[in-house]
Amino acid sequence: MTVWAVFVGILLLTSATLAQHLDLLGEPKDWTASVDRGGTKMSVRKVDGNLLVEIESDGGDEDFPKIRRIFPKPQDWRLYQRIYAKVRVTCDDPTIQFKNLAFVFYDEQTRLPDYPGNPMKQQVIHQTVPVGRWVVIAKWLTGINRATIRQFDLYLYETPPAKPHKFRWEVSSLVLEAFGGETVIFDGLPFARKQIKGAVGKAVWKVSTDDGLQLVIGSYGDAFQVSAGGKILGRARLEVPTGLMVRDVTEVDKPPTMVGGEVKQVGKEIQQKAKLKELGLEVFATYKSVGGYIEISGKVADLKGEDRAVTVYFALPVIKGEWQWWDSIAVARAEPDESGELHYYETGVQYGLNGTHSKYPLGVLTLPERGGLTLAVRMDEPVVHRIAYNPQLSLFYIALDFGLVRERRVDGSPLWEVPFRILLYRCDPIWGFRSALQRYYDFFPQFFVKRVKREGGWYVWGNMAETKGAIDAGFAFHWGPRDSAAVKWDNENGVYALFYIEPQTYQQSHQDFEQAPTVDEVVGRLKKLADGDQKELSAVAATTYRVYPLAHTDEDVQKRIQETAQVVLQSLNHNAFGQPYCSVGRYGWMQKRWGAILSCNLAPALPRGKGWFNIYRVIIPALEGMEKQGARYDGLALDSLGGYGEASRVNYRREHFRYSRFPLSFSAHDHQPVQVAFFTTVEWLQELSRIFHPKGMVFMANCSWGTTPVGLPSLHLTLTSSGLNTPSLPTQISSEPLPTENLAPTYLTHLALNGKWHGICCTAFSQDTATTCKFCVSIRVYFSGWRKRDGNLSLVRGQVRKKSDLSGLVRAARFTLWRTTPKKAVWLRRLSWN
């Protein structure tokens, strides 16, 4: 039996024991199979007790195959907190590695009023499933309205790939779960209440901050007591674990274990050391005061000599009361979601427990009239983490997810041992998150250095001299100037000229293909280019796009194509099947012909890797070349950071592990140790800072991330594109000033692109005129980016937001686009916010 099968079996047993169920599987007659369009064929039957859905794809565009249950009477599913399924997908094409499904809920009272016929809204939970093995899916129903359910769909997507093939889904379990009083949900996992055990020792010593926060550690390693300003905020209890805890993630039915061990005072610090033989782990930690905060730091090490997936916890007990959890500076709440906990997570990523992690590097909990607590990590030490409040257990905790392997880094340090560092400090209970942020800024001013000398708008491509009134309109940053003449004009007019690069990915032309290339064809072409195959080099060189990036040198184009291909082969991030992440499409910048985009590791230490190549073969030669022409780049325009799925990916490629300084985590799908792909980008950004900050250069990034913005200390201007669900996040955790654009769910075009003005619209690129669609008239483009020092807002180009979203901001300025004709200029008018 495989490890995966054991994992699935234990999870099934655990779920069945702890929850009440509503079976949705039923019989084949309860389901109807259909497609939204196209010629894809489907059938539904039952085999060996499993629901079997067979699908014959016709290739091409997505036909949206699905099976559907319709309920004649509304179903009240509010009792149930989680959907639980066990599925397996198999394909006749061995190159297909993943398939996607979606659970779709339709509630009678949740409708789309602006759509014809007022249809029920699709409330969707997505999941990616690896081909060829049984997979358990357990998803909380947070945000799903379900008081009057009339329809439930299971979408079993046809693409990728966009070619004819056959595949089949087996569903052995499909239930809704309700967890009762004998079940405890901790860190998103259900446990029997009797499994949760604590320990309370004698007080060993206390650690105090200079503003009156005091943490007392007990002889069992328990968080014996926490107080602020003389007021007790929490005390350890026998029935609840506190302090440092660890958990082997592969033992899915077991809750965290208190580290315990030897606890003693050493000088002004508390030290804790333990060997947990049953878990095969060793933990060492220190507790010390660092002025305004308490630092809990240490290391966890594997003793088994195996690959490990481990979560380290630090849990604080808190007294009973109406504690408030803060999602942001504007939102505080006391009611938990379906998981029974309060947190602010990004979900659906490929790393960490259940594919979730905290959006912010800090979490804030306050009790009015009594005190406030903050748990945090450092932004220059990326780690997959979750910060949450569990009211059932009265615990405020942080979880850190690590992967351990029996290998060493290139510097000799062991990858089976990882360091961790957790920060604990107090905050004002009235100001909550804003107070905690301000203190974080004060603790780490180096993360928030303002290097930009002026604020203003974003001008893209071309030559700004060709746009009359651009300076008066407030443009200050020129993204990708066309040539040396454009850069010289920027230099003469105080505009930041920014050299353009898309650093994370490799793009390869297949413009000579008449149909979409397969992944094998993409990789095959890449290998031939790297080997110097003359036929392949000539074919690619003859296309208009060729490959990106190319070295900024005067060398022969084919030699540069070959060099890029060699670098990329060394740098490709790999998925669980040992294959590169590859997106294929007809891209506009390739004249809507076929092309491929591949994911790369940017770790600077990777020999002749993409990180090295970006700096020493692209950026530095480009900067030096511009100087030879009598002009000067003022910084870098870093496009698509986190884009094309980079923000959520993991890298299974083990030979890469030894080149990264940051800890490994583990895969959300199979709990194998992996690199978090974006963390190597953070390393690269830190290397950029080391090289170019002393030269006074600034970095501007167009980001599509959902991850906690650990790269922001290296960036000075950030435009957030699609995929950012929290527009206020980068404005609060960033260098300043920070222009942000939230492009989801609307589509906000750049104010000036190639010398032409643009408007805003929720559905289309509206060139030359500002649109007046029904949605757009209710929104405004306004300046955002809270100044951390004085509570004011930076005057920088802003984001699409409804007026109602501005609660909690101190002051704001609003900018309105005036409607115009193509022959008239579009001007911005500053208005006061009412």
Q: Could you describe the 3D structure shown?
A:
The protein is mainly beta and 834 residues long. It has ten helices and 55 strands. It has a nine-stranded antiparallel beta sheet with strand order 20-21-22-23-34-31-30-25-26, covered by helices on one side. The radius of gyration is 27 Å and the shape is globular.
Number of helices: 10
Uncertain parts: 1-13, 720-727, 735-834
Largest sheet: 9 strands, antiparallel
Over all CA atoms, what is the radius of gyration? 27 Å
Helix content: 10-25%
The helix/strand class is mainly beta
Strand percentage: 35-45%
Shape: globular
Number of strands: 55
Q: What is the rounded distance between the termini?
A: 66 Å
Mean pLDDT: 84
Biggest β-sheet: strands ordered side by side in the sheet: 20-21-22-23-34-31-30-25-26
Topology:
Layout: H1 3-18, E1 19-23, E2 32-34, E3 41-47, E4 50-58, E5 66-75, E6 82-91, E7 98-107, E8 123-130, E9 135-140, E10 149-156, E11 164-179, E12 183-186, E13 189-192, E14 203-208, E15 213-218, E16 223-228, E17 231-235, E18 243-248, E19 257-258, E20 262-266, E21 269-276, E22 281-290, E23 293-302, E24 308-317, E25 324-326, E26 332-333, E27 342-343, E28 345-347, E29 356-358, E30 362-367, E31 371-376, E32 384-390, E33 395-404, E34 417-427, H2 433-443, E35 457-460, E36 475-479, H3 484-492, E37 496-501, E38 505-509, H4 519-531, H5 534-541, E39 547-548, H6 557-571, E40 582-587, E41 593-599, H7 610-628, E42 635-641, E43 650-651, H8 654-657, E44 665-666, E45 673-676, H9 677-692, E46 698-703, E47 717-720, H10 728-732, E48 747-748, E49 752-753, E50 756-757, E51 760-761, E52 779-783, E53 799-802, E54 813-817, E55 828-832
Parallel strand pairs: 35-36, 35-49, 36-37, 37-42, 42-46, 46-47
Antiparallel strand pairs: 1-11, 2-5, 3-4, 4-11, 5-10, 6-9, 6-11, 7-8, 7-10, 12-13, 14-15, 15-16, 16-17, 18-19, 18-24, 20-21, 21-22, 22-23, 23-34, 24-33, 25-26, 25-30, 27-32, 28-29, 30-31, 31-34, 32-33, 38-39, 38-41, 40-41, 43-45, 44-45, 48-51, 49-50, 52-53, 52-54, 54-55
